[in-house]
């Protein structure tokens, strides 16, 4: 089980640009939702057709600085042969709950949590890279967000949300963000912008348990927008170098700037064996379908979001 960005630093800078503000990052994400960018650090493939039902709302959220990582629309009994939502054996019906994973700034997280707590149909997990977990989930058990009903079979639940998988994904998510920042020089404004996101913002996943409600999640974000999105992150001045060093080894200085993931340094991040096996079946890759296989992925992203049940 390995994680890491594909491509060279130069290739990734060309693909994702050199953001100098949160606005630049938000524009990058919005462009991905519009099909103008083929991938993101957490999404190796272009956005899929399943996102069409959500695309307008996703673009709007990203333009306001609410960076969407993963999503799927609600589905209430689509035929298993449906060209977009269908999966599994013939003559069956498939269902799914609306799901959204989003990166939220520290200025907005308290208000968003207050709104989610007021809605009895919403369950959520929110965590930052330091491991500060907030949730209203009643227990640590799985919550099925995709399931199917087929002739002669028990209910099939291929996609779930649960605490252990989400926390394991948290480690991978922030590690990938750190890898993205390392595509830029240590004193680059882009590196500081991305590191600020990784150090301070919350990864939030939201499930609307009323699968017949079409837009139950997006009203939670009404009138929320990241403040001062155009403000550039200040980059500290680099002291003059003496004999090739700047008051110490340059490599050590660079290491001090890197954020930590979870409860330990990113280079020491380890996923427990009990989680390792589960994550091997976690949703990733493009939205491939087969007559006898469960659906592989939510609307966009390659590693985030619900895990497949085992």
From TrEMBL:
GO terms for cellular component: cytosol. This is Methylenetetrahydrofolate reductase 2. GO terms for molecular function: FAD binding; methylenetetrahydrofolate reductase [NAD(P)H] activity. InterPro entries: MTHFR_C. Residues 8-222 form the MTHFR SAM-binding regulatory domain. Residues 232-310 are annotated as: Disordered. GO terms for biological process: methionine biosynthetic process; tetrahydrofolate interconversion. It comes from the Eukaryota. Residues 248-260, 267-298 have a biased composition (Basic and acidic residues).
């Amino acid at each position: 089980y390995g994680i890491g960005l594909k491509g060279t630093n130069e290739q990734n800078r060309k693909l994702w640009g050199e953001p100098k503000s949160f606005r630049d990052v938000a524009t990058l994400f919005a462009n991905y939702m519009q099909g103008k960018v083929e991938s993101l650090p957490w999404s190796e493939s272009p956005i899929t057709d399943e996102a069409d039902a959500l695309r307008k709302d996703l673009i709007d959220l990203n333009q306001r600085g609410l960076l969407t990582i993963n999503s799927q629309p609600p589905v209430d009994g689509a035929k298993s042969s449906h060209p977009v939502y269908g999966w599994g054996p013939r003559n069956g019906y498939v269902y799914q709950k609306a799901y959204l994973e989003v990166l939220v700034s520290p200025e907005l997280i308290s208000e968003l949590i207050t709104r989610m707590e007021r809605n009895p149909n919403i369950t959520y997990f929110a965590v930052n890279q330091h491991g500060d977990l907030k949730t209203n989930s009643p227990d640590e058990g799985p919550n099925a967000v995709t399931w199917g009903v087929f002739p002669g079979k028990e209910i099939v639940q291929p996609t779930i949300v649960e605490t252990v998988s989400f926390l394991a994904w948290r480690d991978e998510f922030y590690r990938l963000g750190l890898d993205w920042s390392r595509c830029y020089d240590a004193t680059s404004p882009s590196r500081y912008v991305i590191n600020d996101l990784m150090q301070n913002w919350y990864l939030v996943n939201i499930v609307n348990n009323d699968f017949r409600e079409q837009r139950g999640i997006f009203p939670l974000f009404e009138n929320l927008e990241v403040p001062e999105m155009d403000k550039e992150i200040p980059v500290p001045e680099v002291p003059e170098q003496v004999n090739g060093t700047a008051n110490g080894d340059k490599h050590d200085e660079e290491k001090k700037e890197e954020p930590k993931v979870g409860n330990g340094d990113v280079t020491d991040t380890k996923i427990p064996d009990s989680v390792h096996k589960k994550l091997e079946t976690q949703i990733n890759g493009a939205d491939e379908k087969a007559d006898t296989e469960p659906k592989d992925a939510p609307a966009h992203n390659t590693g985030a979001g619900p895990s497949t049940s085992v």
